[in-house]
Amino acid sequence: MFPDLIFSGMRPTGLLHLGHYHGVLKNWIKLQSEYPCFFCVVDLHALTTHYATPDVIENNVWEVLIDWLASGIDPAQANLFIQSRVHEHVELSLLLGMSTPLGWLERVPTYKEQIEKLRDKDLSTYGFLGYPVLMSADILLYRASIVPVGEDQVPHVEMTREIARRFNYLYGREPGFQDKANEAARKLGGKRSKMYYELRSAYQQEGNGEALQQARALLQESQSLSMSDRERLFGYLEGSSKIILVEPQVLMTKASQIPGFNGKKMSKSYGNTIGLREDKVSIEKKIRTMPTDPARVYRSDPGNPDKCLVWQFHKIYTDQSTHEWVQRGCRNAGIGCLECKQPVIDRILLEQQIMLERAQKYMDDPSMLRAIVADGCDKARKLAYETMRDVREAMGLSYS
Ligand code: TRP
Predict the structure, then answer these.
(1) Does residue 146 have its Cβ closer than 6 Å to ligand 1?
(2) Model confidence over 187-208: pLDDT tens digits?
């Protein structure tokens, strides 16, 4: 009924670094040519933790967008926009909050953990507790079917599925639903109708997911159905109510393999990042002073790449023959550590140069970026409008 669509978001709380690039953005770049993509700077989510320092958000919204574009997100393929500019996020979040049990929110594994971790902030707020509801609204507003996120966000997407299911259960019911569904099935025509019922019972009685997919495809293809009949039949496939909001699937993004320059995970909070648009001298310095295998005190001491941080960078940045050169040269002390670092430095600087060139365009002419975002917001609003029309109607808010 609804075509595949990707939604993902990023909080504008700081400049992006190589961890974001290798962990998230490369994946988005791959997806942008495969699906319609909505990538959103979630400034409202940033406010849940930074409500007392909104300047942080203000300073970073455009920078994050430039970082996305610099890394190769293509505005001709993906829709880029800002959450707070599409007011429906707020509206849907509030409406979903009506039926979201408090217990679900309190039990999110990251909830108490984050409050503990971010001790310097008072996060015992309504807004922070509601973080997953706002995130559900982001996703459900576009009826996104696929949500690429890191492991830490999986419980949030799971909750989105539950919120959607509950919503459909509460508001997708209509008097005489079953009769109407059967009526609609007749309109599929004899052969298709029979197939629909067979696939439906294969799914409902045996949990056959393949059958569910086939039945969905069958409905997708049938020209003879009205919108509401189609919705009924989609709903009837899985239960006894219409599908108003779509349950999304998680597309789990593998964590970035790139360590910070001091060996811990690359993260702003550890202060060990290499920025996407950092200046050359600073990058060189960070890598030159990066610790290596502690066994190599002197140039003549042999080392072991498996115990060396620089090797992790080689694995990401350099080619097979360089790998062999490193393995041999480190283990027999044929090369020094600085020598070993040079190809990594060269590759990172080359990558950055490409990013800087892409970014420069937007820095020279901010109106280009404003136009891309205005366009992204327009496209987002269009979809959001349609969903909200259905949501308002389902919740009894479309008075005439
Ligand atoms: N919570 C996500 C994070 O911190 C950001 C986010 C907000 C998001 N809304 C989303 C991610 C919707 C995916 C889909 O990374």
Answers:
(1) no
(2) 998 899 999 999 999 998 888 8
Give the Å distance between the CA of 73 and the centre of ligand 1: 17
Same domain, 101 and 189: no
398/355 Cα distance (integer angstroms)? 48
Check pocket membership of 232 for ligand 1, CB cut-off 6 A: no
Question: Are 62 and 77 part of one and the same domain?
Answer: yes
153 lines ligand 1 (CB under 6 A): yes
pLDDT score at 280 = 95
Q: What is residue 155's predicted lDDT score, i.e. its pLDDT? A: 95
Residue 120 sits in a domain of what CATH number? 3.40.50.620
Ligand 1 contacts CB of residue 9 (under 6 A): yes
CATH of the domain at 286: 1.10.240.10
Q: Is 294 exposed, middle or buried (0-12, 13-18, 19+ CB in 10 A)?
A: exposed
Q: State which residues form the domain around 200.
A: 177-237
Residue 42: CB within 6 Å of ligand 1?
yes
Q: Ligand 1 mean position to 135 CA, how many Å? A: 6
Residue 39 DSSP SS3: strand
User: Going by CA atoms, what residue is nearest to atom 15 of ligand 1?
Assistant: 10
Any atom of ligand 1 within 6 Å of the Cβ of 11: yes
**36-47 average pLDDT score:** 98
DSSP alpha helices (H): ranges in the chain? 18-20, 26-31, 43-50, 54-71, 88-99, 102-106, 109-117, 126-129, 131-141, 154-171, 177-186, 190-206, 209-221, 227-238, 280-288, 309-317, 320-331, 337-364, 366-394
**Domain presence at residue 153:** yes
State how far the Cα of 84 lies from the Cα of 92, in Å rounded to an integer. 12
* Same domain as 153, residue 10: yes
Do residues 104 and 168 both lie within one domain?
yes
Residue 186: pLDDT band with limits 50, 70, 90: very high
Segment 34-40 shows an average pLDDT of: 98
Cα of 353 from ligand 1 centre, angstroms: 29
Averaged confidence pLDDT in the chain: 94
- Number of folded domains that form the chain: 3
What confidence score (pLDDT) does residue 223 get? Answer: 83
User: Could you tell which of 5, 10, 83, 246 is best to mutate to test the pocket of ligand 1, judged by most ligand atoms within 8 Å of the CB?
Assistant: 10
Instruction: Compute the distance from residue 10 Cα to the ligand 1 centre, in Å.
Output: 6
Average pLDDT of the residues in 209-227: 89
Q: Of all protein residues, whose CA lies closest to atom 3 belonging to ligand 1?
A: 10
